[in-house]
Design a protein that fits this description.
320 residues; Rossmann fold; 2 domains; six-stranded mixed β-sheet; elongated
């Protein structure tokens, strides 16, 4: 069931068509990620859902109600920004209570709800601290608690992990997804980070030039990309021409060895480069079908070695 329905949504800034007739259904209780490079339209769509931008045309409905022209404060959504937008002069509990206080919720009730929200984001005992006394990850969780305490139908997250270091960012990805499952609220998450989208999402909407090129599960987006842009933007791929037909193969499905494989495709080549990137090592092989990048080698190799690359045909996806 769609909690948000977007139809023919369009927005231009001067001569730039930022969002180009987008249709999108967002399901109740799902974690949907809007993924794309800078300028692809994903953040503009999020801001129009929130009410911070007005569309030039099209409509947005929430729970069956047309909210296209409603101001932000009349929409049953909350937004978490990259900079968290916490009030520096207020302590944590006052930051979380702020929205409830504006709504006129009684003091005892808003304190109870705020403490419960703080517990949900695993920050019980931090209520009297000021934002400057918290780490980046803790400030992010306070911003989440402030948004969740109002129990919105939809939580919008505009690259909320972008300011965190890599290790904390990876930790918060898991915590954010776990929190979404616990509270059961629909999350709409904006990011340009492909790994982040694949890790957290129930579905991904891949944006490019103001349009959605594909919307699907993370697995299908990665393994069965529908367009050339999706194949190249989400992960890495080798585009290889074989007997006049172009096929695409992910590097992790290609093996490198000194001897030829008797199964699937196999091509001889020269190992041009070995790139160590921590958890994986990339092997760049110069073959008659072009430069091919692989991740798998079962033996020690060195630059200049004569090698063979091979993969199973079922690992290919079609020309895009």
């Amino acid at each position: 069931m769609a909690i948000i329905e977007i139809r023919n949504l369009a927005k231009s800034f001067g001569s730039v068509r930022a969002v180009d007739d987008v249709d999108l259904d967002i399901h109740a209780g799902e974690f949907l990620t809007l993924l794309g490079p800078s300028g692809s339209g994903k953040t503009t769509v999020l801001r129009m859902i929130a009410g911070f931008e007005s569309p030039d045309s099209g409509s947005i409905t929430l729970n069956g109600v047309d909210i296209t022209d409603l101001p932000p404060y009349e929409r049953d959504v909350n937004t978490v920004f990259q900079d968290y937008a916490l009030f520096p002069h207020m302590d944590v509990i006052s930051n979380i209570e702020y929205g409830l206080r504006v709504k006129g919720v009684a003091k005892d009730e808003r304190r109870e709800k705020s403490l419960r929200a703080l517990e949900q984001v695993r920050l019980s005992g931090y209520e009297n601290r000021k934002p400057h006394q918290l780490s980046g990850g803790q400030r992010q969780r306070v911003a989440l608690a402030r948004a969740l305490v109002n129990r919105p139908s939809v939580l919008l997250l505009d690259e909320p992990l972008g300011a965190l270091d890599l290790k904390l960012r990876e930790q918060m990805q898991l915590e954010l997804k776990e929190l979404q499952r616990e509270v059961g609220i629909t999350f709409v998450f904006v990011t340009h980070d492909q790994e982040e989208a694949l890790t957290m999402s129930d579905r991904i909407a891949a944006f490019n030039n103001g349009k959605i090129e594909q919307i699907d599960t993370p697995q299908n987006i990665y393994e069965n990309p529908g367009t050339k842009f999706v194949a190249e933007f989400v992960g890495k791929t080798n585009s290889i021409e074989i007997q006049g037909a172009r096929v695409n193969v992910r590097p992790e499905h290609i093996k490198v060895a000194r001897s030829a494989s008797t199964h699937g495709r196999s091509f001889e080549g020269t190992l041009r480069d070995i790139i160590f990137v921590g958890a994986t090592t990339r092997y760049v092989v110069d073959t008659k079908v072009g430069l091919v990048t692989a991740l798998n080698a079962q033996e020690e190799l060195k630059r200049g070695d004569l090698v063979h690359i091979s993969w199973e045909k079922e690992r290919e996806f079609s020309n895009l």
